[in-house]
Every structure is written in C-alpha cells, then in structure tokens.
C-alpha cells in the first residue's frame, strides 16, 4: 500500500488515514511496517515545511500503544511484546514525545551511574532518544560507554545510533569517530549509515565525508560487499 503511494498511484494523505486506523493494533509486524514507512515519509518530508507535522503525527499514532505497553515487561508477555516496546518507545522518543523523552533521560542517567542497568531491549530506544535530543556531553557519555563496553554487541548497538545526534559539529565528530581505531573496519559503514539516516544535516554531512575520504574507504573495502553497502546507505 505505501509503495503505491511512493509510486504516485494513491495519495499520501490516504495512506496516513489508513495508518491512523491501526492505533489499537497489537501486532509487532504491523507496527514494524508502519514504523518503516513513516520513517521513509519522514525522510522525504525532512526537506519540506511538513517535517514537524509528521513528527506530531508519529506521536499521535504511537502514543496509545506506548502507554499500553509502558516501560517495563508485564508477566506472561512474549518476545514480540519486548520487541514492540523497543520499537514504539524509540519512535516516540525520536519524535520528541515529552513523557518518553523525560523517562528515557532518567533511565539513561541511572544506567550510566550504574544504579539501574538498562535491559538489552531498551538500550537502543533510550540511546536514540537521548542522542536525538542531546548535546556534546550526551555524545561524550555515549562514546565513553562504547569504550567501556566488554561485548561487541553493545559496541555495535552504540555505533548504529550515534548518527542520531543533531548538531552539525557533533555529526562531524561521529563521522571522524567512524574512521578511528575505536571502530572495527567492518563496522565503520554502520556508523556512517547511521549518520546518513539520522537527519537531513546528517545525510549531507555523510555524503561529503564519504567523498572526502573516498580513497581511504575504497582501499579499505574494494571488491567486498561493504563498499556496495556504503554506497547504498
């Protein structure tokens, strides 16, 4: 259905009306699809005056399910409920939903201070939320968490979300970090991709960064699948 909208067969407004009808939907797969398509639309609208309005729409569509799920697991819930919680809270947090942002900041602070460690399924949504609405100290804290992480899984989780940061000078810092020795060569593409997908400013910065560092990147990945992945992102 959304692919028909992208092809111009039906109007985007019609698609958004259909999306609104899913507010009581409990299925993870449906929400994942909605999230993906709203992400594409949000990216397209980031160059227009409608960007803020689509963020309001995201908050309106996702807040009822966010309130139902809450932040903590309920007795007897399955794996898909945990996935859905992470998806929904990340979407709300990134869109600037006030209550989600406040709770994410509180939980992030407790996590960093070692008071209450975040469960694995809540880390990405919390990291995305605090970074999107964060500053240089938020980025420094995230880079510190990356350095301290024992598990490669946690390092990768952090690398994928660093590009969510909004300020131009911090975006540059993330891109420089992508080529540093702190990041495994095979994971550099994830950091650059995260920047490219993080914001309008990030897309432009990532494009310029790849052009400026093309020789180094090409020599690093020539002949491998990572160079095509880099070009794709």
Question: What does it look like?
Answer:
With 233 residues, this protein is mostly helical. It has two domains: 1-133, Zincin-like fold; 141-232. Helix 4 (51-69) runs antiparallel to helix 5 (79-95), helix 8 (136-148) packs antiparallel against helix 9 (152-161) and helix 11 (188-196) packs parallel to helix 14 (225-232). The protein has helices at residues 2-6, 12-20, 28-45, 51-69, 79-95, 98-112, 120-132, 136-148, 152-161, 168-178, 188-196, 200-212, 214-221, 225-232. Belongs to the peptidase M1 family. Residues 5-232 form the ERAP1-like C-terminal domain. GO terms for molecular function: metalloaminopeptidase activity; peptide binding; zinc ion binding.
Structure characteristics:
233 residues, mainly alpha, Zincin-like fold, 72% helix, 0% strand, globular
CATH architecture of the largest domain: Alpha Horseshoe
Q: Please trace the helix and strand order, writing H or E for each element.
A: HHHHHHHHHHHHHH
Number of separate strands: 0
The main pleated sheet reads as: none
Number of helices: 14
Question: Share of helix among residues?
Answer: over 70%
Tell me the span between the first and last alpha carbons.
Answer: 24 Å
Overall pLDDT level: 92
CATH domain topology of the largest domain: Zincin-like fold
Q: What fraction of residues sit in β-strands?
A: under 5%
Coarse morphology: globular
The tally of structural domains comes to 2
Radius of gyration: 18 Å
Specify the CATH class of the largest domain: Mainly Alpha
Low-confidence blocks of residues: none
Q: What class do helices, strands and sheet pairing give? A: mainly alpha
């Amino acid at each position: 259905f959304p692919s028909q909208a992208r092809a111009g067969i039906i109007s985007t407004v019609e698609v958004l009306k259909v999306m609104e009808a899913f507010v009581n939907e409990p299925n993870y797969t449906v929400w994942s699809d909605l999230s993906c398509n709203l992400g594409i639309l949000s990216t397209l609208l980031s160059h227009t005056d409608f960007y803020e309005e689509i963020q309001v729409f995201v908050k309106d569509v996702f807040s009822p399910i966010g309130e139902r799920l809450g932040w903590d697991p309920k007795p007897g819930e399955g794996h898909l409920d945990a996935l859905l919680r992470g998806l929904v809270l990340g979407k709300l947090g990134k869109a600037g939903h006030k209550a989600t942002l406040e709770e994410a900041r509180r939980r992030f602070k407790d996590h960093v201070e070692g008071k209450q460690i975040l469960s694995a399924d809540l880390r990405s949504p919390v990291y995305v939320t605090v970074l999107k609405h964060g500053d240089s100290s938020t980025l420094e804290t995230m880079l510190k968490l990356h350095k301290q992480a024992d598990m490669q899984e946690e390092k990768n989780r952090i690398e994928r979300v660093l590009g969510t940061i909004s300020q131009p000078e911090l975006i540059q810092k993330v891109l420089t970090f992508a080529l540093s020795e702190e990041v495994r060569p095979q994971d550099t593409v994830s950091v650059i991709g995260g920047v490219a997908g993080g914001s309008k400013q990030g897309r432009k910065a990532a494009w310029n960064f790849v052009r400026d560092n093309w020789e180094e990147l090409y020599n690093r990945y020539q002949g491998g699948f990572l160079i095509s992945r880099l070009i794709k992102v």
